[in-house]
Each structure stands twice: as C-alpha cells, then as structure tokens.
Design a protein that fits this description.
- The structure is a single chain.
- By secondary structure, the protein is of the alpha/beta class.
- It has one domain: Glycerol-3-phosphate (1)-acyltransferase (3-Layer(aba) Sandwich).
- It contains ten helices and eight strands.
- Strands 1-8-7-2-6-3 form a six-stranded mixed β-sheet, with helices on both faces. Strands 4-5 form a two-stranded parallel ribbon.
- The longest helix has 32 residues, at 7-38.
- The chain is globular, with a radius of gyration of 20 Å.
- The two termini are 18 Å apart.
- The relative contact order is 0.15.
C-alpha cells in the first residue's frame, strides 16, 4: 500500500514500526516469564506458556502486516495447506539470510504452532530480542570449536544436552521446532571451503536434529521440509524492510518421520545414526534438485542465488 514511497523511507518506517511493536509487548512477555519461573505449579506454567505464545503470535502478525504495508511482494507459497496448529512439527529450511526467519514466520503463521529455533548463546545479549527469546523458551546453545574440544574433551556433547533439555519444555504445548540443518547461512566462501556435495546447499549437520527426534518421538511425527528461493538474489534484512524484494518462493513439503528414526540414541546406536544420516541426505538431495528447477523456471543463471539485490528503480 505504501510501495510508492522511496525505499529508504519505507525501510525507516518499517524498522520503527517493528521496534515499537517489540517494546510494546516486551513488558507483558517479561511479566508472564517471571510468573512462570516464580510459581512452580504445573497449570500456572502451562497458562503462562500459552499467554507467552499468544503474545508472540500477535507480534509476528503485526510484523507481517508491516511487510505487506510497505512493499508489494509476489509470494509463491505452496504446500502449507492442511497443517494443524495443535500438532508438533520438526521444521527444516535452507538458510541464506536473516531474512529467512520473517519469511518463514509469514508463510507459516496460523498454519502451525509457534516456530521456535535454536540460537547461539551469544545472541542472548542482543538488546531487547535476547530477553524476548529467553522469555519464550528459545533454547540457547554454546558451540565449541574442534580446537577447544580437543583441549576440553569434557565439554563434548554439551550442546546436544542443551537440545535434550529444551525439548523437555516442548512436550506439553504444541510447537514447531525449527532447525537450520546447515548450521549457518550459505555463502559462496563457506560452500567452497566445505566442498559441499550439493550445488545450492551446505552439507547438513545431523546431531541437533537427531536429538530433537530422539527426545520428542512420541509427539513429533511430521517433518516440514521448507525451501526458500529468492529469484532476484538473496537479500539482507534491510533490503526486505526497504521493499527491494520483489519475488519470494516458499515450498513446503510435509514428510512423515519413520518410526525407526524417533526415540533412538544418536550417539550410541550406530545403525540408527547411519539410517538417520541417509534419510536426511535424501531430503537434502531433493531440495538441491528443487532449487535447480526453480532457477530454470525463473530464468536465472546458476549463480543467481548468490547475486546481490540491485535497485533498478532509484
């Protein structure tokens, strides 16, 4: 509706609206979170959790409205029908930009329970948002380098223990647990350094995903394999706020999680470990093939996904 405004003005207005929306709901988040911690009674904690999720959903809804208000995006979203808000889902998506998160929230809002994802421990210090993530029970994980683990072998497996503890909190209320299996955002440099066997993806990391399914096998029977493709090049978050993103493709595939891959011990059961990795590799190969097909259908060159956004109107 306001797409006639200059890009810089749209970006500034969108940023101010999102920030205002965040500060508006922050006190309510903190009150509910503190009550949840202070009153160790089951039904009280459940009630506070539901209130926190309700507040977060209002926040996401308004932010999505801001995106619609400031720009005119051509959305091509498929496969998000017939999902349930009262079920548990394991959600995986390719990761190219911080823009992926608001895109996922927009595409899945009202279709599935609130998306919760694992965060690096350092992000808890992000002003305002770190507190919000803590209040909403987003799990924070501390990742250790191979060199550090070599010197401190006692820390090996601590990140997976964090996964297990986080999943315990997710068992009582429906949730969609988001895991970027690549572990980081795709860049040409990371792709080359890793020597990834996939054209458009980094190789997946298996441990965190396997531990989610190990811990929540009773509740979680479906994986949502989501592929995001930006036909005009991968944008950054400011590009999105400014309305420079014209086309977005979101493909959602609901995949039944085999019973043999739920409730098993990834670190001790070698047969399960091999089966799980092969299952994920098959999904990843299909995703890579889909992205190649999307490039062809949108008449983009093979390296278009790594191209920067170029404003042709200013």
């Amino acid at each position: 509706m306001l797409s006639f405004l200059p890009h810089w003005l749209r970006g500034t207005l969108a940023f101010l609206l999102v920030v205002t929306n965040t500060f508006l709901w922050l006190p309510f988040l903190l009150i509910c979170a503190l009550l949840k911690v202070a009153i160790p009674i089951g039904f009280v904690r459940k009630l506070m959790t539901e209130l926190l999720i309700g507040i977060a959903n209002i926040w996401v809804s308004f932010n999505s409205f801001v995106l619609s208000l400031m720009q005119n995006i051509n959305w091509a979203i498929t496969g998000n029908e017939n999902l349930k808000r009262d079920d548990w889902y394991f959600v995986s998506c390719n990761h190219q930009s911080w823009t992926d998160i608001p895109i996922l929230q927009k595409a899945m809002y009202g279709k599935v329970p609130m998306l919760k994802f694992f965060l690096k421990q350092e992000l808890i210090w992000v002003p305002v948002m770190g507190v919000c993530w803590w209040a909403l029970d987003f799990p924070f994980m501390k990742r250790y380098s191979p060199a550090y683990l070599k010197k401190h072998p006692e820390m090996r497996g601590k990140d997976l223990e964090t996964t297990r503890k986080a999943c315990e909190k997710f068992k009582t209320t429906p949730v969609a647990v988001l895991n970027f299996l690549e572990g980081t955002r795709l860049t040409p440099a990371k792709h080359a350094k890793q020597q990834s066997p996939y054209k458009n993806l980094l190789a997946p990391k298996y441990g965190g995903a396997a531990f989610v399914l190990s811990s929540m096998g009773e509740q979680m029977h479906t994986m949502l394999d989501i592929t995001i493709y930006y036909p005009d090049g991968v944008p950054n978050f400011w590009d999105l706020l400014c309305g420079k993103v014209k086309n977005i493709v979101v493909d959602v595939k609901a995949i039944s999680i085999p019973s043999t891959l739920r409730g098993k011990d990834y670190t001790q059961d070698r047969a399960f470990k091999i089966e799980f990795q092969q299952w994920v590799q098959g999904i990843w190969q299909s995703k890579d093939t889909l992205i190649e097909a999307l490039k062809v259908s949108h008449n983009k060159l093979p390296d278009a996904a790594a191209a920067p956004i170029v404003d042709q109107t200013s």
